[in-house]
């Protein structure tokens, strides 16, 4: 349930919108305003309780039979309201971030830049605050363009992909499903090497080719990105890491179940991962800033790797 | 009681927009039913002030006018509240509505959709597409992209408002290697999201220098301080340049390493020069920026540092710490 301010904002736009559209369909209007039909009906129940002026003004005579919306005393009670500072910032920051994404189609970029300029003009001083806020999406432009094209033309991709956890490049055929950006840019697709759905980060694609094979991914639900990119399963093995103050960043980069404060300013972090071996890199990276407490074989493998590496320096 | 409040705000908004002369608080109280229920003057005054603030947050310009007999009146002039003519074509509207979906943070997500609602009410031709996978794929001609701005930390909202209103703030901040958070007093200049993390740049009053803070390291609440900024806000604040240099980018020095064949692809991708040494090893020259030692150690026995000596010593030092366990 949206709060009262959002509902008021929506209702103000609604009376302007409905004015031009007698008999508008509830389903169409709900979709246009990005709300459920029940929320829209909620708004339509409030509007008839609203007067149009401070003294003896008529109430808005707006009603609905659940399918269509009728306004019997249509009046020019509201006009499209100027943009608030938050609204202008939300649109402008987003539009600039997307427009600057390397690899975006030129036609989209141009459309966004034109739209941005027009919004800036219409927002006036409300646009000012948006310059204090910016978002950059990282992307590999040429890889982006190839994946984008493969999705549009429904073609299979061949990629050489780097997996940091194993420090290896693998060749795969993938039917791409979608491109998304969360800080970095990724694509999700059906991977024929792992016979499963996989997410690939564009800057880890070493080589990419569009194949003539049509893409034919099995129907799969798109991932819910709001839950974060890494979503460990409940039965994944547990790893416990203890870090000093210099290793606290681990809690910012690795999704975890638990991060307990330690007396020295460090953290005891408990996380789950399908492949604990992939954390050997982390153990090596941490150096004196932290260590893997369990499983024991993981901390052992990091120690062995360090000892082997030291041998090359004559130690 | 969300409904009651929305009804009250809506009535107030329509009253203020549809009057030609300033309307007094007394008249508004008499005219809007929701205000009848409020018993004390004090409670009414508080509610009225809050309601005006809420409408202003929606973008409404409410003027306060003192009449000849000294009474304060309010009105929202049509010409000052109208969204100026804005002619977006279908292409521009589509691009904008895609971009507007990037926010996951509640306040900006609502603000973005509120802005689109206003534009739509003003006649901008948004295509009312049903969302979803199929829709995205069908709309060929546009990049099939779903950009998302990661939900920022709780510190984001108060900092955003403080940055906009140029108010100094105070918060506790834990530096990367610090045992304990320390109090900071900052004049916030700009917020930037890079590689999925939010940063604040501003003037650190105690250090009397420009500082960049990572929002995830702010502990506890952000408190707004009274008074004005003591420094000039620069036109352009390059948060990213500061962060990128910590991330080891823009390095001008180079290092030489030996790298086992077929391993360390990201090192190879960055190499200035790669020379095969024998059947198993290559020699690479790579940029040497901040944090390279920690990164090289990740490759374990597949990397051997040849120089400079300082980097070699750092790497050996780190390896010793790990080998000890």
Automatic annotation (TrEMBL), chain A:
The organism's place on the tree of life at top rank: Bacteria
What keywords are annotated for this sequence in UniProt?
Proteasome
Q: Which residues form the WCX domain?
A: 237-310
For this record, the Gene Ontology CC terms, alphabetical, are: proteasome complex
In what residue span(s) does the WYL domain sit? Answer: 143-209
Q: Where is the PafC HTH domain?
A: 7-120
Q: What is this protein called?
A: Proteasome accessory factor C
What broad taxonomic lineage does this protein's source fall under? Bacteria, Bacillati, Actinomycetota, Actinomycetes, Kitasatosporales
Automatic annotation (TrEMBL), chain B:
Q: Residue limits of the WCX domain?
A: 254-323
Any idea where the WYL domain is?
155-219
InterPro entries on file: CBASS_pafABC_assoc_protein (IPR051534), WCX_dom (IPR057727), WYL_dom (IPR026881)
Q: Does the keyword DNA-binding apply?
A: yes
Stretches the record annotates as Disordered: 127-154
Position of the signal peptide: none
What are the alphabetically sorted keywords of the record?
Answer: DNA-binding
Q: Name one GO molecular function term.
A: DNA binding
Task: Give the classification, highest ranks.
Answer: Bacteria, Bacillati, Actinomycetota, Actinomycetes, Kitasatosporales
Q: What is this protein called?
A: Predicted DNA-binding transcriptional regulator YafY, contains an HTH and WYL domains
């Amino acid at each position: 349930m949206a709060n009262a301010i959002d509902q008021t904002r929506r209702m103000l736009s609604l009376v302007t919108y409905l004015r031009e559209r007698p008999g508008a369909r509830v389903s169409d209007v709900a979709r246009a305003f990005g709300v459920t039909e029940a929320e829209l009906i909620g708004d339509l129940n409030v509007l008839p309780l609203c007067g149009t002026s401070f003294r003896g003004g008529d109430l808005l005579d707006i009603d609905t039979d659940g399918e269509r919306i009728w306004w019997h005393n249509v009046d020019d009670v509201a006009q499209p309201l100027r943009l608030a500072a938050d609204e202008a910032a939300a649109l402008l920051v987003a539009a600039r971030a997307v427009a600057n994404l390397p690899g975006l189609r030129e036609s989209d970029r141009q459309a966004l830049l034109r739209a941005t300029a027009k919004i800036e003009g219409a927002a006036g001083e409300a646009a000012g605050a948006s310059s204090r806020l910016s978002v950059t999406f990282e992307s590999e432009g040429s890889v982006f363009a190839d994946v984008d094209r493969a999705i549009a033309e429904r073609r299979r991709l061949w990629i050489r992909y780097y997996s940091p956890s194993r420090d290896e490049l693998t060749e795969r055929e993938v039917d791409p499903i979608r491109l998304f950006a969360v800080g970095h840019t990724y694509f999700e697709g059906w991977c024929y090497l792992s016979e499963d759905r996989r997410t690939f980060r564009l800057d880890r694609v070493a080589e990419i080719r569009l194949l003539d094979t049509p893409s034919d991914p099995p129907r799969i639900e798109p991932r819910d990105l709001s839950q974060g990119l890494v979503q460990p399963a409940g039965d994944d093995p547990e790893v416990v890491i203890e870090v000093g103050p210099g290793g606290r960043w681990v809690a910012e980069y690795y999704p975890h179940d638990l991060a307990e404060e330690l007396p020295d300013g460090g953290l005891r972090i408990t996380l789950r991962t399908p492949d604990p071996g992939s954390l050997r890199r982390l153990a090596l990276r941490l150096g004196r800033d932290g260590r893997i407490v369990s499983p024991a074989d993981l901390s052992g493998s990091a120690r062995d790797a360090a000892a082997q590496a030291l041998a090359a320096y004559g130690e | 009681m969300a409904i009651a409040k929305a009804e009250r705000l809506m009535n107030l908004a329509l009253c203020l927009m549809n009057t030609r002369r300033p309307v007094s608080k007394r008249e508004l109280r008499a005219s809007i039913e929701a205000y009848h229920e409020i018993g004390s003057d004090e409670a009414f005054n508080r509610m009225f002030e809050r309601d005006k603030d809420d409408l202003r947050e929606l973008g409404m310009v409410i003027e306060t006018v003192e009449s000849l007999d000294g009474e304060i009146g309010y009105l929202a002039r049509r010409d000052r509240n109208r969204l100026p003519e804005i002619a977006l074509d279908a292409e521009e509207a589509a691009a904008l509505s895609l971009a507007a979906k990037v926010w996951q943070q509640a306040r900006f997500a609502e603000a973005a959709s509120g802005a689109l609602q206003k534009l739509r009410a003003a006649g901008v031709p948004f295509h009312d597409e049903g969302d979803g996978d199929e829709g995205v794929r069908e709309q060929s001609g546009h990049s099939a992209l779903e950009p998302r701005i990661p939900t920022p930390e709780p510190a984001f909202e108060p900092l955003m408002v403080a940055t906009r209103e140029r108010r100094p703030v105070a918060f506790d901040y834990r530096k990367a290697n610090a045992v304990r958070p320390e109090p900071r007093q900052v004049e916030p200049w700009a917020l930037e999201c890079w590689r999925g993390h939010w940063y604040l740049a501003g003037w650190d009053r105690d250090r009397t220098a420009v500082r960049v803070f990572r929002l995830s390291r702010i502990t506890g609440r952000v408190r707004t301080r009274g008074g004005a900024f003591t420094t000039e806000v620069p036109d352009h604040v390059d948060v990213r340049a500061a962060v990128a240099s910590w991330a080891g980018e823009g390095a001008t020095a180079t290092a030489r390493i030996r790298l086992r064949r077929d391993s360390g692809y990201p090192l190879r991708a960055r190499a200035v020069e790669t020379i095969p040494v024998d059947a198993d090893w290559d020699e690479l020259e790579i940029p040497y920026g901040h944090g390279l030692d920690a990164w090289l150690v990740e490759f374990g026995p597949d990397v051997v540092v040849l120089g400079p000596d300082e980097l070699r010593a750092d790497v050996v030092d780190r390896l010793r710490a790990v080998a000890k366990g």
